[in-house]
Amino acid sequence: MIRASVVVPTFTRAKLLPSLLESLVGQEYDGQYEVLIVDDGSRDETPGVLNEWKRRFPDQVHVLSQENSGPAAARNRGARAAKGSFVAFIDDDCIAAASWLRSLERALQETGAAAAGGPVINDERGWIGRYINRESVIDHVLARDGTVAELITANAAVRADVFHALGGFDEAIRVPGGEDTEFALRLRAAGHRIVVAPEARVRHQSRLDLADYLRMAFRHGRGRWRLGARFPEYRFSVPGLRFLWLAWPVRAWMARDYRRYRQGSVPTSEALRYVALRYLENLARMAGYIRGS
Questions:
Q1: What pairing do the DSSP bridges indicate for beta strands 86-90 and 61-66?
Q2: In the chain, domain spans
Q3: Reduced to 3 states, what is the DSSP secondary structure of residue 278?
Q4: Alpha-carbon distance values, 15 to 20, 49, 133, 289 (Å)
């Protein structure tokens, strides 16, 4: 009997998939589990890579394909086909620790929570990778009580019955960024808890250059627009955003951030890069929000 299902949405990541799949089929887990990869209309060698892994592990690796519809739709497609009592989500550019699935399950069992999220550690192959970790860009956002308020689906698990009862992710959010937060907010609004699973670790295979990072921030801004349509606390005033667009460079926080980075032993040249990136990413998010979903 399958106890756990791992769902991975993927889009044009053929080069990164082997290391992810190697980590998933090698989990130290004492029950049966399945891995469902949903190809969201990839335009590279992804289908061939997935077929090879399906051939090697026919009882464990299952491949689903669809026209490009976004990560929310891909995750929902995988979850609908899942047979496990809980569904674990991980992104196609991550690598799971050997104890990842077991640790997620333990967090759900010991707390009785509906969902759990584990740490996502970004590769520090360059200064942008170091910035991502320092600023907790891809971490779960915690509530005051220590539970998770905003879930990151690069490392998360949800009880299958709860996931289906809530209708899964909002497929109207087609860009990566916002669909996981929206689901977490609905989950909490329904009275469920999301706990932290500190031992369930995944490593994010960062390949981001400056342009990639700003595109990601832009997508997150678009996702925030969709969140604001449903949750007023996430709504921004567009005229206010346009004013901030002009005023942001003279804000005192730039000097404060520089001092903070230097006090954290960041070299001068890198601290200046961090300050500039923080300014640019906020502009990119604003542009994404104004652009809308």
A1: unpaired
A2: 2-204, 210-291
A3: helix
A4: 10, 9, 23, 31
pLDDT digits (tens, 9 = 90+) for 41-69: 999 999 999 999 999 999 999 999 999 99
CA distance 90 to 204: 10
β-strand pairing of 202-204 with 155-159: unpaired
Question: What tokens does 276 get?
Answer: 């500039």
What residues have CB less than 8 Å from 158, skipping those under 6 apart? 86, 87, 89, 114, 115, 187
Among 70, 61, 64, which Cα is nearest to 5's? 61
Beta bridge partners of 94: 204
Q: Are 215 and 291 in contact (CB under 8 A)?
A: no
Q: Give the predicted TM-score (pTM) of the model.
A: 0.90
- 115-117 and 141-142 as β-strands: parallel, antiparallel, unpaired? unpaired
Find all residues with CB under 8 Å of 31, minimum gap 6, and list them: 3, 4
pLDDT tens readout for residues 229-283:
787 777 766 555 555 555 555 556 788 888 999 999 999 999 999 999 988 998 8
**185-200 per-position pLDDT tens digit:** 999 999 999 999 999 9
Q: Give the three-state DSSP class for 46.
A: helix
Closest by CA position to 124, among listed 278, 270, 285: 270
> With respect to CATH, is domain 2-204 assigned 3.40.50.880?
no
E strands, the chain, are 2-10, 32-40, 61-66, 86-90, 94-96, 115-117, 120-122, 141-142, 148-150, 155-159, 194-196, 202-204
